[in-house]
Amino acid sequence: MKRVLFFILLMAALIFAGCAEKKEEVVAVVNGEEITGEQFRSYYNMLKNSYELEAGKIDEHKDKNLLKNIEDKAYDDLVLQVLIRQQAEKEGIKIDDRELEADLQAFKEHMGEKGYKDFLKRTGMTEKELLRQLKIEKMYKELKERVTSDVKVSDEEVKKYYEENEDLFKEPGGIRIYHILVDSEEEARSIIARLNKGEDFSRLAQKYSKCPSREKGGDLGIVNESTNFVTPFKEAALKLKPGEITQEPVKTEFGYHVIKAGEKVAGGIKKLEEVKEELRYQLEEEARNKVFSNYIENLQRNADIIDKRK
What is d(CA 270, CA 169) in angstroms, rounded to the nearest whole number? Predict the structure, then answer.
């Protein structure tokens, strides 16, 4: 009986040892570096979840072409991420873990504890995966900066583009609008009270607004009847006279707004000097994107990439 039991235990040990030695599934090899099936499935699920958040649930039977597209994008993205990291390391680009942690903490504070947890749940990401994506993003930006640092656009090129595309610089009349976006009516009322006591709108926007426009003191630019803003916001904004602030919070699907009207602006074509630096930045960014796109294509063309998907 003991010999039989010993034999069974020995066979079980050999079987489990064989399982332990079994190599993990590999979906691609990039310059000798493997992308595992686990990495692929995790990233694929994240993309799929993100798509469903925007467009609704995917029907596994009817949307097979869509699922194939998501699968191909997951594969292409992961291969590109490996190439970016490999090249960044060759260029001596290093991302400090403390910097990543600081970015993650800032993201958590912006989202709030509940919002952050909901974000991870909705996307199917773990915090480890999020940190990895943040690191790749930073490497991408650093590498792009190095590759495109010499790209410049001259005054002559800016002027030429302006003269050939004058219609793009037509500005309709309207009124400059600023806003502060917050989550609750109570917070909005508190801000209105502080503004009525003379506090600076721009400073309060920078401190409290949830809208990216907070970086510009809440400035949303020129608003008129054709501006593509949600109706309650646009109607409230266009009722204001220059210098006025809404005395009641304006509720929209985004939250509660405190709105301020700036100066009225007549329609016309902006002068070159008004748009020169912004236009230079736009043209340089387009040129950088083209240079870096060619750089990435060259990396992909010269890389040893083996697709091991079945």
Answer: 6
Answer yes or no: CATH 3.10.50.40 is held by domain 173-266.
yes
**% of the chain at pLDDT higher than 70:** 93
Amino acid at 272: L
The 10s digit of each residue's pLDDT in 246-276 is 999 999 999 999 999 999 988 889 899 999 9
Residue 180 near residue 208, CB atoms below 8 Å: yes
CA distances to 104, 155, 162, 227, 273 from 279, in Å: 33, 10, 8, 22, 10
Q: Is 182 in contact with 204 (CB distance < 8 Å)?
A: no
The token pair at 224 is 């008129």
Residue 197: helix, strand or coil by DSSP?
A: coil
Take residue 31 and report the two structure tokens written for it. Answer: 């310059």
What is the percent of the chain where pLDDT is above 90? 79
Q: Which residues have CB under 8 Å from 148's CB, separation 6+?
A: 287, 288, 291, 292
Q: Quick check: 84 pLDDT over 90?
A: yes
Q: Is the dihedral of CA 248, 251, 256, 258 positive or negative?
A: negative
- Are 222 and 171 in contact by the 8 Å Cβ rule? The answer is yes
Third-level CATH fold of 23-149+301-307: Triger factor/SurA peptide-binding fold (1.10.4030)
Domain positions in the chain are 23-149+301-307, 173-266
Strand partners, 269: 170
